[in-house]
Amino acid sequence: xxxxxxLAWLFFAFSFFTAIRSAWLARLVGGxxxxxxxxxxxxxxxxxxxxLHTLREIYVDSEVAFYFEDPFLLLGWLSLLLLLLALGAxxxxxxxxxxxIAIHWSFLLAFVLGFLHGLIFLHPGRIHAxxxxxxxxxxxxxxxxxxxYRSRGRRxxxxxxxxxxGGLFEVVLRTERQGSTGLKAGSLVYVQLGHSFTQNWHPFSxxxxxxxxxxxxxxxxAGVDTSHLSDLEPGHSVLLQGPFAExxxxxxxxxxxxxxxxxxxxxxxxxxxxxxKAGPVTLVYYTERIEEPIKMELDRLASEHPEFRWFHSEGxxxxxxxxxxxxxxxxxxxxxxxxxxxxxxxxxxxxxxxxLPTSDxxxxxxxxx
Length: 369
Fold this sequence. Notes:
The protein has 369 residues and is an alpha/beta fold. Helices cover 46% and strands 20% of the residues.
């Protein structure tokens, strides 16, 4: 097993490690969004190095490289092809979530095939062998960690489900733990709805303040489970993972940019103004049609807290002129963006084109890119 292959093996193992859905790991790397991006970059680097390794072997001895009668050589080819196909499918647009999950489990098979291939072609040196087995142990432990954290969750009880309008619901949860409060605003959680719903974990933004005795989630009616939110009744129990802190309220001026259901984390952070003070905050909200309950809540918060103001643009096309005026008013502000992946890419590019540094732009992303 050559140097390129060993380095690819290391990146491959670390890609599993960064797929562990753990709050401590997310904090370590600076948030779940950064962890997601790191996970994908590691996978891409692993694939690129394996391709280079394969091309080198073909260059050195093409006859041996294509000797498919050797089953362990064939395993190496299968591992590479499976990794490339799975990566390509992962980045494809509009892949159904169930297929996305199945594709990601195929990486496990690619890892096992790569291990068997590397085991036979392992360099005889002790250091090389020690590195190979250590990396294999890291990958195996990471896979067990993924399975472990997917099976964990704290139980919360549905207190109320309110239909906000426009396919949006506000789900109010309370914990079973006595004396516990809600979760930190600006965080996201994963929820397994249980009972008659699927066993999938769904990411939602926290739309309430930690000081609140309840947890509020703004959910859009858009999937197999979320299209049946009206079936949730008071007393129904759900499992929850998290919170994973993404956005922070600071004393520094901030501009919050939201689209659609992306208003959820900012609604929760704005509700924190009832309990604490912060630096000046401007919210720019893009939506096809603003729902009256959300408008009333934002108006109340703006009237009671002079440090908070908000603007909105209705319609299918985002009026970036509102955002341009906000940038001109305070170029030293921190910009927080939440919405669809396409919306966040568009806003990030627009802000960078306006001359803002990327370090001042943060996005909340449930899945990478």
